[in-house]
Amino acid sequence: MGADGMIGMFDSGLGGLSVLRDVRAALPAEDILYYADSAYCPYGERDDAEIIARSALITRALLERGAKVVIVACNTATSVALMTLRATTDVPIIGLVPAVKPAVANSPGGRVGVLATPRTVEGRMLADLIAAHRGDARVVTVPAPGLADLVESGHVSGPLVDGLLHPLLAPLHAAQIDTLVLGCTHYPFLRRALTAHLGPEVHITDSGEAIARRASSVLAEMGAGRQPGTDIGSTHLLTSGDQDHVGTVAARLLGRSLPVERLTL
Ligand code: DGL
Known about the structure:
Strand content: 15-25%
Oligomer: single chain
Radius of gyration: 18 Å
Order of helices and strands: EHEHEHEHEHHEHHHEHEHEHE
CATH topology of the largest domain: Rossmann fold
CATH architecture of the largest domain: 3-Layer(aba) Sandwich
Strand order of the largest sheet: 4-3-1-2-9-10
Number of helices: 12
Number of domains: 2
Helix content: 40-55%
Largest sheet: 6 strands, parallel
Bound molecules: D-glutamic acid
């Protein structure tokens, strides 16, 4: 394929733009095509068969448009659909898991919190990750119903966010965590609000930079990476949802406008 293709990415909605931000910073010359499955968001309320079917359709659409690698920028879709997606194509599919391992390794006092959607908190993937990497650390998981929806509608600060965070974070205060893992790709957009609630001494970590490094090394191994030069790669959004709404919220989250096209799958 060479360096010509683009990086395909998708999420249930706009949360994966937090990962896109890190991928863009690490790989400035690459073209990125991002599918926001906004008409089906949140995936956490759908059954496995539907999440697998949506993920497969989106991956196929990204491959048809020339994706040389696909990043599943969603914890839920990764845990449910990654293996199926990998079985359908030779193009590398990069999945995303909560950053429990580095959080435990870097936690000064061994007190780690994980904030994630109810679906991710209840799922096998997170339980297995914690069991594999907990060591002597105490890891507290907190489900955050409604939090991704707030980000999806463009709220990253203000009374609605504070009203939801205040009771949600109580168990993390009680556990005196020193490190917080963001187990949903929507949550990095709430970093400032989370720091205001938890205090600056709590280190907050997500998976975006690790995924960007992984994408970079996968492209290098394939010989398909673009050398950074004077050309900045393009960034385009596709969505199953309302194009204008997605464009408005994406611009609010990223601080810049991006072209958005409606693509019903
Ligand atoms: N951004 C998705 C994730 O990381 C949100 C989950 C959902 O749509 O339920 O899991």
